[in-house]
Amino acid sequence: MSSIKNHVQLIGNVGVEPTITNLESGKKVARLSLATNENYKNGNGEKQTDTNWHTVVAWGKVADIIEKFVDKGKEIGIVGKLKTRTYTMDDGNQRYVTEVVADEILLMGNK
């Protein structure tokens, strides 16, 4: 059962062009925002869509695939885990960020 702890699967559309960063260590990191939609009917029977935005971070080979094949609007599937990190702003306030760290990517059709 340990393989299903902290396991995330998302299918959605890329919201902005991914940013690719080559670090001094030689590692590559890709960052993108992913929109997932949930459709449902409200109490009046009208179709509604609830959109959630996710920050996705990918390293190494997955970052290479994103750099070569993923653009804004592309539908992709992501498998990974959630990671929360903290940082301190210039004003001294501490911020928390939760991201999806992608281990695998599935390239799907365009919307």
From TrEMBL:
Keyword annotations from UniProtKB, A to Z: DNA-binding
GO cellular component entries: nucleoid
Recorded GO MF terms: single-stranded DNA binding
InterPro entries reported in the protein's UniProt record: NA-bd_OB-fold, Primosome_PriB/ssb, ssDNA-bd
GO terms classed as biological process: DNA replication
Subunit annotation: Homotetramer.
Protein name: Single-stranded DNA-binding protein
Origin species: Flagellimonas marinaquae
Origin organism lineage: Bacteria, Pseudomonadati, Bacteroidota, Flavobacteriia, Flavobacteriales
